[in-house]
Amino acid sequence: MSLSLRPNAITKRRRRELLVGAVLLVLLALLPLPIGNVYLRGLIVLTLLYAGLAQGWNVLGGYCGQISLGHALYFGIGAYTSTILFTRFGIPPTLGLFVGSGLAALAALLVGWPSFRLSGHYYAIATLVIGLMAELLVQNWGFVNAAMGITIPFHAQSWLDLEFRVAVLPFHYVMLAYAAIAWIIAWLIEGSRWGFYWRAVKDDVEAAQSLAVRIFPSKMAAASISGAITGVGGALYAQYIGFIDPDSGFGLSLSVLIALPAVVGGVGTLWGPLIGAAVLIPLQQLSAAWLGGAGGGVDLMIYGALIVVLALARPQGLVSLFGVRSQAGGEVMDNG
Amino acid sequence: MVGFGLRRLLGAAILGLSGLSALVAPHAEAAPADILIGAVYPLSGPAAAIGHDAEIALETEAEIINGHHNVPMLLGQGGGLSALGGAKVKLVFADSQNNPQIARSEAQRLITEDHVVAIIGSYTSATAVTISQICDRYQVPYISAENSAPSLSQQGLTWFFRPSPTDINFTQAMFDFFAAIGKRTGRPVHSVAIIHENSVFGTDSARVQVSLAAKAGIKVLADISYQANSPSLSVEAERLRAANADVVMPSSYTSDAILLMRSMHDVGYQPKAILAQDAGFIDPAFIKAVGPLAEGVMSRSSFSIDATRTRPGITITNQLFKARDAGKDLNDLTAREVTALQVLADAIDRAKSTDNMALRAALRTTNIPGNETIMPWEGIKFDSTGQNIEGTPVILQYQHGAWHTIFPFDVATAPAIWNIGK
Amino acid sequence: MSAALIAQVAIGGLLMGLVYALVAAGLSLIFGLMDVVNFAHGELLMLAMYATFVIHENTGLDPLLQLPLVAVILFGLGAAIYRGLISRALDVRFNTGMVQIFVTFGLSIFLVGAAQLAFGSDFRSINDGFLSNRTAAIGPVVLPLSQLAAGLVCLIAFAALVLMSRTEFGRALEATREDRDAVALIGIDRQRIFSIGWGIGAATVGIAGVMLTNFYYISPTVGSNFALIAYVTVALGGFGSLLGALVAGLVVGLAEALTALVIDPSLKQIGIFAIYVLVLTIRPRGLFGRL
Fold first, then answer.
1. CATH classification code of B168-301+395-407
2. Residues of C with CB below 8 A from B290's CB?
């Protein structure tokens, strides 16, 4: 792996990335305007949400190499916090989401502290178990209405409360802002000293071991950033759907869906999560409309097969199809 | 987009069956437009079997409304909706995948793209929450066919209508039964043991049971909450055995119901009486799986299949349903789905229009006597929250290979096998 | 809470624990061999259960008698999965660890869909087997014969695994685990070892599956319940350690049963998870882990 240290090379590429990002932002902002179809607009909203979530996951999973299968924990904390603050204390979700993401960041630190010293698969399973524990606990916790979940009833249109009766367009811009900010954070991390450390360490197992102590604080920081981003996504989602329950907030399939776009699109890359979300989310949503009644299970078979095929055929992610040289050209969790 | 063309193709294929009735209906060059009614159910995933049954139940009722089967009940004479020139009802199905977010977006799609006049759904409470909310926002009626969680009609929605009794009504019926059978046999219930799965259904159900037991002066010797789909329920069965209450009251879905019965048998516990909160216990798969262990099991229900004397509509409706569903009889869920469409169609007919405001007004003034339906209820009349206040549940008991109605006594078709105090 | 009750619950928990241990052993074997966590392990269990059901439906063959048959079928399936998918996953040039995770994840989703398509989502069960609905009483303790037999068979299978690890083949497995690349030098065919390893791993979970059909329902998603407990058991016992899988399985079974009894049945899984978290904080590689 060549680590180009020439300042000009780095700056030029990164400037190009910013330009592409800006153009994409403008295009996405204009995208829903000619589309009158409410369903399609909703599809794009969810895709943008998952683009942001995947970007957040990627900070920890892609750049830091810690594959988390329990990110729904942070999503759920963000969603529930914001929802409870809104429905019970009247605090608008535009403020509540900060509280939610703060708590999620804290949770990420608590989880990371004991689990970062676990190697690869051990870590993945630990996050899986913790995520499931959280779902179980919430399911049995009366304060958050246990299994019944919490509904956010509609009262009045308001940007502060992120309440729009049936309009999808406002949420498009909210989620676009979310995905854009997550992308910018990832871009900043890529260019930072932490990013540098992590890339160096990922390829070199011995360096990883000897630098483990040194990079622990930066990993904790990555965990909290990742958790915070995911928490914001959860809060926005709850407000969009108007309902949150243990399954939609903390479920395993949610954790997988948060991780998958980055994996499919390209872990540790800037564009991977976006591409992955653009491919996977419409597929998942439309499978209900296309296959639902006709094939009981066919949609799962296609979904599963796609994951396997993409993982095997394009392990560096779909982003490699675009000839984008992976910034993090090394391995994630090489166990050789 | 290709995808949506495919969807329409699939929709047409699914509705192919009801196309038969189009052949029977009188031809008219300028036939009135079909009335599109949306239905959101889990058509894939673990609950797909239930969703599939719902589809068939709704299609059966649509066939009755549109065809000429002359069923002795409201709208049973067929020929479409007379007030709208014989317009036929046409169902548009959508798969919720039992996921509240997908249920919501599918409901939204049905409303904005297919322009359905109302939506029927949805089996689970979580999906009912999001569907009813989005319907409310779009000002489109949502008919809850078989969601029994009481909280659904407490959301403050004004476009929500539920013909079915709620778990509060059902549980009240259970305790009414206890009081009545105690008086009749002289062997009343002194204690109960409650066991429930810990999701919405079970938790809500248990809560009501505990409070009604207190009111009736019946001791609750155990209140066990368990994780649905557990690998093992032997400890739970042990606790029930230790409690040794007069009646075990389970609220479980099918797989847990099967496991629970087996576990109780395995630990050598034969409860004196089991009165279930429906769900898994009335699933034919349950009966098939536990075999002889099901003898004597009681369950609340909203439907009595053997009430053909007082509900003559049952015979033909069941025949039509059976023909479409591989010989399965109507059950508690499918009967309510049939009725939901009947209620909706009646309201559209009375409204003489598909305008949503007119439809809501008509729904609000619904007043259908019980014997015009296949349900053993007093009738269908909605209160201000959209809840039917005349839905009277029944208690069934599995005796010698079939379900019999044992309560209320005036509609009972068999005496209860009552082992308390013997 | 009588002593008899506690004894009954504890013994039941230990019996289930033996089943968990066997399921975990297969998982641990595969991981110990090639650092691959098989996230489709639960689905292998599910397939074994369906295989038993289908054979029983069509031939009337009792599950007990099907043990060798289903074990062979699952062996073939495991080897096929290795050849067809895992070997490819091991060969990818980037992100190998992550690819392995997601390949088996995708496989598990695929298998659940396939089962749903083939069998529908209705629950199936075997009611008329030799062991169905029979109980054995030892003093005040009443145990279902099916669970007793399950525990016994799993224990025997476990012993067989241990014996196998002592054979030359077992040593070859161990050697391959230690140094994947060097074994070729001493004439060990890595691909063959891995295929057999996967086959054995799948066969063990197959045996557990056959025994489960005597008292557990069968559905496309039945695997996920057990898989979860298996992951925890393996992580608790230590990846790659058979002894660890056994001890951890017993601990998990016991913890689950006692938590249900003493605290609350709906929280019994929390008991397991809590122990897991505790052990991992104190001893990250598990009780007997050597990796």
1. 3.40.50.2300
2. 127
- Cβ <8 Å between C95 and A332: yes
Q: Return d(Cα B276, Cα B269) in angstroms, integer.
A: 17
Please judge whether B199 and A147 are an interchain contact, meaning their C-beta atoms are less than 8 angstroms apart: yes
User: Hey, how many other C-beta atoms are within 10 angstroms of the C-beta on B85?
Assistant: 12
pLDDT in 10s for each residue of chain C, 291 residues? 678 778 888 888 899 899 999 999 988 888 777 777 888 999 999 999 999 999 999 998 888 899 999 999 999 999 999 999 988 888 877 777 788 888 998 899 899 989 988 988 777 888 777 877 777 887 777 778 888 888 889 899 988 888 887 887 777 777 776 676 676 667 667 788 889 889 999 999 999 999 999 888 888 888 887 888 888 888 888 877 888 899 999 999 998 888 888 877 777 777 888 888 888 788 877 788 765
Give the fold, CATH level 3, of A7-322: ABC transporter involved in vitamin B12 uptake, BtuC (1.10.3470)
Name the token pair of C95.
């992100």
| Helix/strand/coil for A185 | helix
**pTM listed for this prediction:** 0.87
Chain B to chain C, count of Cβ pairs less than 8 Å apart?
107
* Other CB atoms within 10 Å distance of the CB of residue C119: 18
Q: Which residues of C touch A260 (CB under 8 A)?
A: 102
Q: Which ipTM score applies to this complex?
A: 0.84
Which residue in chain C is spatially nearest to B51 when comparing CA positions?
C121
User: Measured between beta carbons, which residues in chain A are less than 8 angstroms from residue B45?
Assistant: 296
Residues of chain B with CATH 3.40.50.2300: 2-165+312-391, 168-301+395-407
CATH of range B2-165+312-391; options 3.40.50.720, 3.40.50.150, 3.40.50.2300, 3.90.380.10: 3.40.50.2300
The alpha carbon of residue A228 is apart from the nearest alpha carbon of chain B, in Å, by 23
Shortest distance, CA C224 to any CA of chain B (angstroms): 10
Interchain contact C110–A (C-beta under 8 A): yes
Cβ under 8 Å to A: C residues 23-52: 31, 35, 37
Each domain of chain A, given as residue ranges in start order, spans 7-322
Q: Cα(first)–Cα(last) distance of chain A, in Å? A: 17
The C-alpha atoms of residue C212 and residue C149 are separated, in whole angstroms, by 10
Cα A207 to Cα A201: distance, rounded to the nearest angstrom: 6
